[in-house]
Structures are given as C-alpha cells and as structure tokens.
Amino acid sequence: MIKLEDVTVIYNNKTLGIKDINLEIKKGEFVGIIGPSGGGKSTLLKTINLLVKPVKGKVYIDGREITNLDTSSLRKVRRQIGFVFQDYNLVERSSVLANVLLGRLGYMSSLQSFFNLYKDSDYYLALQGIKEVGLEDKIFARADRLSGGQKQRVAIAKALCQQPGIILADEPVSNLDLKVGENIMNYFKKINEKQKITIVINLHDVNLALKYCHRIVALSKGQVLFDKKTGEVDEQLVQKVYL
Ligand SMILES: Nc1ncnc2c1ncn2[C@@H]1O[C@H](COP(=O)(O)OP(=O)(O)OP(=O)(O)O)[C@@H](O)[C@H]1O
Fold first, then answer.
1. Where does the ABC transporter domain start and stop, copy by copy (predicted)?
2. CB of 129 closer than 6 A to ligand 1?
3. How far is the CA of 41 from the centre of ligand 1 (A)?
4. Residue pair 154/172 in contact by the 8 Å Cβ criterion
C-alpha cells in the first residue's frame, strides 16, 4: 500500500513540484498518472520512494511512514520498489544479464556488490525476470545493441529482479513508437495480473492510460484534478486536464 498525506515538494526553495497531495494506492492496483507537462507527474512518482524529499507531509509504504527513515532503513524499503525510467537507465556496455542482476544490489553489502558476488538465487531471479519479458535469446547481448523496446524490457526485468511489491514507471513508453509502447504496456499488464505487483505509471498518452490502467489520477500544477476508476473517465474530463 502506498499513501501520501498532504505531501508538498518544492525544488530549490522556489519551484513547486506537487502541492498538498493526498493519495492512497492499494496493493495490486494499476494506476496511471496523466497531466500536462510540468504538472508534477515525475515529482509524484519520485516522492513515493523519496528520490525527491517533500518539504511537507508524510509518505507511507505498507503502513509504515518512510519520510523520517535513516538511509539504511530507506534502502531496505527502496529495494521493494522497482523504478522504470523513460531512458531505460541501463549500463550500455554491459550485458542484459549483468544489467538485470543490478536489481539485486539493494540486497547486498557494499563489499559484495563491489566484487559482483551474486548468489545462485540472484542468477535464478535474473533469469526469471529475463524470461518474463521474453529476452532469453538476448541474455548475453550488450545493452547498446538492443532496440529501445528491448532496452525497456531489460529495465522491467531488472525491476522484477528486485522482487518488488511496487513498480513505479516514469514515462516508460514515450521514447518508443506506439506499437512498441503497447508491447511494453502489455508486459506491465501481465506483471500486474500475474504477480499482483502494484504499478504506478506516468503516461503522457492518455489513450494508453485509459486502455491499460484501472485507475487514473490527473495532475496539473502540482495538484490532483481528478482521481477516478478508468471507466468513469470521459473525454470532457480529460479535456479539462489539458486546458
Ligand atoms: N530537479 C528539478 N529542479 C527544479 N525544478 C524541477 C525539477 N524537477 C521538476 N521541476 C519542476 O517541477 C514542476 C513539476 O515537474 P515534473 O517533472 O514533476 O512534471 P511532469 O508532469 O512530470 O512533467 P513532464 O511530463 O514534462 O515530465 C515543473 O515546474 C518542473 O519544472
């Protein structure tokens, strides 16, 4: 469960990111965040795992407040939260397998990670993730040899390798053409349905959000304009968001 209580983010003491956000996302939900550029979508997502720190308000994960945690406790919380970025965030010169294994770093000591001391169970989880996104035939390929869609599938496998309860995805399809984007969305759908992983995804393509997400949260000027089940969102409502 994710809960934000009166959360405000201000960058550099002057630029508003999000303002007084109250939001509760239950386990297993598939939530799409939409809204105009600069509306606060990215800030909202990054606040959930405290990549961005609020100036006001509280963030809870599974009922536990995380806003006041020390670095080591926050690291433990973060390893249950996968993050998929728009630009894939891969080590380009490393193999698919090496990239996916990075999902295990949060579970290792700094010495273990320095020497790449992965356990058999880490390899097992990496292979499971790679299979889940259908990249078995690319396991030893270098990331920079892959297409954009394949790179994003590696990023999803890496997130899965963390064994997360939550995956946050920040515009994961906006660098991809529509067909490839739909393919990626289908992977998120499968993961959500099969593994019951909570998915919160920022999408500037409203049609994709309406097609795949169960719930839509619209943000503008850092505030929630509406928060509804997808079936309750009509064209008029969407138009108001982008006015
Ligand atoms: N690192 C930062 N430093 C300063 N201001 C920032 C930073 N990140 C975001 N902002 C500002 O915070 C506000 C919200 O931005 P945010 O990126 O969260 O919106 P967004 O809805 O994700 O937009 P986009 O769709 O363009 O990515 C904007 O005014 C933006 O300029």
1. 2-243
2. no
3. 8
4. no
Residue in this structure with the two tokens 């954009």, named with its chain if needed: 148
How far, in Å, from the CA of 56 to the mean position of ligand 1? Answer: 17
**Which atom of ligand 1 lies closest to the CA of 204?**
25
Tell me which H or E stretch contains 170: strand 166-170
Residues 6 or more apart from 206 whose CB is under 8 A from it?
A: 34, 238
Ligand 1 atom closest to the CA of 35, numbered from 1: 21
Q: What is the pLDDT of residue 150?
A: 98
The answer to whether the beta carbons of residues 2 and 166 sit under 8 Å apart is yes
Q: Which pTM does this prediction carry?
A: 0.95
> Which residue type, as a one-letter code, is found at position 90?
L
If you take atom 3 of ligand 1, which residue's CA is the nearest one? 11
The total number of residues written for the chain in this structure = 243
71: tokens are: 């670095």
pLDDT of residue 112: 78
Contact criterion met (CB below 8 Å) for 85 and 159: no
> Are residues 51 and 77 in contact, defined by beta-carbon separation less than 8 angstroms?
no
Check: CB of residue 169 under 8 Å from CB of residue 201: yes
